[in-house]
Request: fold
Amino acid sequence: MASFQSELKALNQPTDRGDGCRVFIETYGCQMNVYDSQAIGGLLDKDGFETADDIFDADVVLLNTCSVRELAEHKIISRVGEIRRQRRNADLPPVTVGICGCMAERLGGELQKGTNRVDLVVGVDNYDKLPGMLSELVTSQSSARRKRTATGHRSDAHYVAPPSLYPVNNSHLVTIHKGCDYKCTYCIVPYTRGPQTEKSPQAILDEIHTLVDSGATEVTLLGQNVTAYNWQKELDFAALLESVSGIDGLERIRFLTGHPKDMHPHTMDAIGSLDKVCPWLHLPIQSGSNAVLKRMKRLYKRDEYLEMVDYARRVIPDVTFSTDIIVGFPGETEEDFQATLEVLSRVKYDQIFSFKYSERPGVPAAKLADDISIDEKKRRLAEVMALQEKTWNVEAAREVGKTWTGIVESAARHPRDSWRVRTPNNRKFVVADGLSSNLFSKNTNHGLKIGDEVSALITGFANTTFLTGE
Ligand code: SF4
Reply:
């Protein structure tokens, strides 16, 4: 397979075609988009474009979008109109607006029609064309500037975010593959992101080495389905974790998202035995009913999922779980729904992301009758959330009085003058910006900073954040 990394070098010799044009990128949706926005920033930077601080400071605004829910798409269309309005109200000239990401891939040229039409549309595998397209657009003298679209999947398109543009919340996102080969019937991803294609292990290791050389200590391996990683059917996700663990200077490895079907015993053995791999599994179950799982084409049964959770608890010390739930999938009976509640009670997740089913045009589930009323979906969602809160409150209370260790990740929003700290198993606690007998930093003598390791006594919790103190 052609390596896009090597092609990128040729495609992206630094040029000055951006000529100081200022670009603001607004990112929506998942962590993959966060990574892609950074990669786009790197591509534009090489070609002489500059980063704008906001839409008022920009010559070009790019919206990197999500298609997972219809509401998300409607918001983007409104946002295009809002950006233009805000610029007009500020007496600024019209701005070039582009749409990137999943919505660009799904709707293509359609986005260049109608009231809130945009100037360019660039799908997930065509970001290397962006600098050229933008340069032509912003330098065109013609009042009727040509509209531009670049979409379509390429198996060789893997973008690499430059270390200087990685987020500073201590975990560096590293995309290891893109797309998905599964066809869960409710999901738009296989259509917007295309089939699964993987970065080579060497490219991943090189990228992480570069990050570590520039000071990173933690990475999050990213993909729609990282546990399905299997480079040329010779090196699977467990083996990749082992290779990444061997990088000197790297201290922690997280990953998102895994598919329950691919969470094999030997993968869990690797997670449990490799000290650098964090013991947190985000494993979307979606439903606790076998009948619904079958209609969703999730490729596992409820008991297989529960066995996998039990196995993980045996071999991965301190492991925690989070999940995604869809309520009101077509044909979901009350009995099916109760089966989902039973799974929640049994697994005792740290966190769930629960949604009412909403139909996406073009996916297989759109052919099924959306036969659960909106009121019933709301009731089921409320019940899921209430049960999760009750279950979590019991689990969280057990942690009070224990001493936890984690890494300072960012300033906390609340309370003031405190830091947010994340444990290896993905629990969050806040600590005041000072030292005391039960709050100490290994790396500093006074005060704290991002990246410090901190231990603290847990004194309580508010929602999913734990509190610490004397
Ligand atoms: S595994 Fe299913 S839900 Fe996840 S990205 Fe692939 S098709 Fe979508």
